Amino acid sequence: MGAYILKRLLSAIPVLFGITVIVFLIMAMIPGDPATAILGSYATPENVERLNRHLGLDRPLWQQYFIWIGNLLQGDFGRSFALNRPVLDEILDRFGATLILAGTAFVLCALLGILAGVVSAARQYGLADKAITFVVILGISIPSFFLGMMMILLFAVQLRWLPASGMYSIWGGGDLPDLLRHLVMPAFALSVVATGVIARLSRSAMLEVLRQDFIRTARAKGVHERRVIWGHALRMAMVSIIPVLGIQAGFVLSGAVYIEMVFQWPGVGRMLVDAILKRDILLVQGGVVFVAACYVGFNIIVDVAQAWLDPRIKT
Amino acid sequence: MGAFLKLLFRNRLAGFGAVVLGAIIVLALITPWLPLHPPNATVTANRFLLPGTPGHLLGTDHLGRDQLSRLLWGTRLSLAVGFAAAVIAGVVGAAIGIIAGYFGGRTDNVTMRGVDMLMAFPYILLALAIVAALGPGLMNALIAVAVVNIPFFARNIRGITVGIANKEFIDAARLSGMGHTRILLTEVLPNVIPVIVIAMSTTIGWMILETAGLSFLGLGSQPPQADLGSMLGEARSAMITAPHTSIVPGVMILLIVMSINLLGDGVRDALDPRLRSGALTRPLPATQVARKSVPEVPAKPGLLEIDALETQFHVGKRVYRAVGGVSLELKPGECLGLIGESGSGKSVTALSVMGLVASPPGVITGGAVRLEGRDLVGAKYERLRSLRGDKVAYIFQDPLSTLHPLYRVGDQLAEAILSHHGIGRAAAMERAVKLLEDVRIPNAKARARSFPHELSGGMRQRVAIAMALANEPDIIIADEPTTALDVTVQAQILALLDRLRRERDVAILFITHDFGVVGQLCDRVAVMYAGRIVEQGPTREVLEAPAHPYTKRLIACVPELGEGRRVLAAIPGLPPAVDALPEGCAFAPRCEKATDACRAGEIALESHGGRKLRCIHPEPAPVEESA
Ligand code: SF4
Fold first, then answer.
1. Are residues B191 and B296 in the same domain?
2. pLDDT tens track for B513-559
3. Cα B349 to ligand 1 centre (Å)
4. Same domain? B504 vs B610
5. Which residues contact A177 (CB under 8 A, 6 or more apart)?
6. Are residues B58 and B170 in the same domain?
7. Same domain, B512 and B549
8. pTM of the full predicted structure?
9. Whole-number Å distance between alpha carbons of B35 and B68
10. pLDDT band at residue B600, thresholds of 50, 70 and 90?
């Protein structure tokens, strides 16, 4: 197992390299002089000159890339001129909030999705199955930002159960119950689409597995049906569910951008959108690379979980 | 095409999706000719009029603009943008996929690496980066969404192309001197286009959602132009005071995406033949029962009595009579062979005993299965479960597929015990190891920690046998337990079964298609053909003097022990399909001695001493050699 984890970690290096190249190339598409674009209204001749020297922006593209990578590896993501602070500090301040939001939503969608899928498969064509199928279709079709807005209308404005926004900083004063009160709606709104997708997939994976011979063997042994479903069948179905969890994590992370906007959540997503609107290029560049790298890391965890779950994978 | 549409509409939800989507598209197309207010005409006096206000069916927004007009124009824009993004992503992605898949080698490697890199991003990061570089705007949002989806198409299309590129007609085209471009355009592309179109149509909803999302964030369409996303985005600030301005565009997005999803599901179902036949149903915990009458219980019950058992498969309107009135009796400690070709109903008979016939489509429609006098057919699930594996245990054909691939064999054995005896995990594990030793598995303690795929075929079947023995059952039903094994291993497994049954006094119902195996192991044998018993008797007698022409033929071509597969090839013709059984003797079409009387009507199974026979022209007994 240790060797497999190491192998998987090493294989992430070229991916990370590829990610930085892609982001770099996209940013190189910005028309006009890069230093002027980055500095925006701060583009005095001295500032342009200084930035050119620091980032090598007057040199050939490939040299710029290596200077940028070198800086990244030293933890220097550049400076946001709009916020007047280092990009990395800003990202780290914001990332915790996104992690809490997306993490909660991910756990929610994995649990609810698998639960719904298994129940649906076990009661195929029954009332529960039909109800779940209907909710799932609705869930995967509703835009999360619209759902979020409707939830605010209902729970915050009409019923006054939960706050609509007002999460300023997760570390700023609020205690845990306060955090949870702020978290419930956005996390749920964020999880809905992924829950639907996972429920759907879990259902078909379970149906596929339940027809296999080893399920008949389990039944022939006298294993209780509850254990046949939640043990034997689900264990096998997880082999096809887990990779989808990895993919859905990416969608949850993506959806977080919308949800952070709707609920005024102080996370990286909102930071990125604000940065784009303010043309704060280095902040966008740094944020994208940072989050993408985290996602690559998360996928390693998914792969390791998969290998741990399925002994037939050569580790 | 007509049949396809019919299928599509039989799926009512898909039909609903098609109608809603069709209506929306038509509305969007005719918008310019509808008598609407101009979408961008601001009338500050009319801000936030509620829906239903005369002249403004859906009310007005924060600038007093007519919502209905804006909604339709916005829908038009959203649909167009989503469609355009799907086409761009589809065309570019497909081009990349086709080139990579067709040329293979380095081209393929490098391209697919690049595609993998793109897929390593959560999609929105890539889209945001592109919009950040190009600047906010609807066109740029469209480009971003298209680019983000290119990898999906490239990967799918590449897979299909690889399959096509290796086909003979491509080789033939190459040999005939056609250039790559021509092959790609005339041979590959036509085969890939349907896949591209389907992939596009299923992703359009997604593209509309994504572009709407970017517009919602303020990165897509810029005022005064508005698509559905930016309408929603602009309405957000007034969400609390004038919720209708948010609800109107939001519901529209929901309707569009949902109708596309429903339609897409319907298309997929209509195209996937597996779903059409209803094969993707999961079997219930026990076979369904629909008996009209229950046979009477005899005065002196035996160990196991299968009494006039009828099991059918109901697939759509068709009824397959897999087992048509089979009666068998198993005495304590005896081994009864049940022999027949595949499709004769022997396995279904065996599985019916404990309600293990996959259901749906299986249904037990008649007869009874009595264990010590008590009927198992229609028994409560809990009673059935408590007997399964405890009183009656099964061994199945291919242990690679019948053992759980992800559980250690020791755990699977222990589970068999723990399902019936609350002896604690440690004790169960200990007993599991003992069982593995009993079936002669060397180094049992270490082997208990193996997974099935780490064992050889013979070892796996030993594990399966150990599992059947776990609760010291009275009866073991062995369904072709040696068929998947090679000959030497077969002999070992048979010897093991024979030894175990003598040591433990367990009765065996042994299902096989191989008379060689029956001769080795069984006291009595019953021959099945087309769902019925045609002959039955003590093994020695049947082997020496088969009375049914079918039995005789089965025996005549038994090769050396174990290589029973040849038997099938040796009898000309095939058994009849069990949904179209002929009148009279089912074997008549293949029988040399068949006469009109054979085809006339039902032929009964008659007893002659210890033997039973269903034939009106029995084979003559071989002449005894006289001294
Ligand atoms: S009944 Fe007639 S057709 Fe059937 S096996 Fe006997 S001889 Fe052949």
1. no
2. 888 888 888 999 999 998 899 999 999 988 888 888 888 888 876 65
3. 23
4. yes
5. none
6. yes
7. yes
8. 0.88
9. 11
10. confident
Closest approach atom of ligand 1 to CA B534: 5
Give the one of A141, A223, A272 whose C-beta lies nearest to B128's C-beta.
A272
Q: Which residue has the tokens 């926004």?
A: A165
Among the candidates B247, B276, B305, a domain finishes at: B276
Residue B224 preceded by cis peptide, ω within 30: yes
User: What's the pLDDT tens digit per position in A203-224?
Assistant: 989 998 998 999 999 999 999 9
Q: Rounded to whole angstroms, how far apart are CA atoms A52 and B321?
A: 84
| Residues comprising chain B, all counted | 627
Residue-number span of the structural domain to which B228 is assigned: 2-39+53-276
B204 in a domain, yes or no? yes
pLDDT at residue B621 is higher than 80 = no
Band of residue B222 on the pLDDT scale cut at 50, 70, 90 = confident
Higher-scoring residue by pLDDT: A149, A176: A149
Contact (Cβ atoms closer than 8 angstroms) between residue B249 and residue B228: yes
Alpha helices in B104-137 (DSSP H): 105-119, 123-134
Shortest distance, CA A303 to any CA of chain B (angstroms): 14
Q: How far apart are CA B420 and CA B495, in angstroms?
A: 28
Let me know if residue B216 belongs to a domain: yes
* DSSP-assigned states of every residue in B73-106: HHHHHHHHHHHHHHHHHHHHHHHHHHHHHHH-HH
Q: Which of B276, B306, B327 is the last residue of a domain?
A: B276
As a whole number of angstroms, the distance between CA A252 and CA B381 comes to 42
pLDDT score at A52: 78
Q: Which residue, chain included where needed, has tokens 């919602």?
A: B216
Mean pLDDT across chain A: 86
Residues at CB less than 6 angstroms from ligand 1: B 548-549, 585, 587-588, 591, 593-594, 598, 603, 615-617
Question: What whole-number distance in Å separates Cα of residue B199 and Cα of residue B257?
Answer: 15
Tell me whether residue B47 is in a domain. Answer: no
Answer yes or no: is pLDDT of B410 > 90. yes
Is residue B547 in a domain? Answer: yes
* Alpha carbon distance B500, B495 (integer Å): 9
Q: How confident is the model at residue A230 (pLDDT cuts 50, 70, 90)?
A: very high
DSSP class of residue B227 equals: -
The whole-angstrom distance between residue B1's C-alpha and the CA centroid of its chain comes to: 26
Q: Which residue of A lies nearest to B359 if distances are taken between CA atoms?
A: A211
Query: What's the number of domains chain B is made of?
Result: 2
Q: ipTM of this complex > 0.90?
A: no
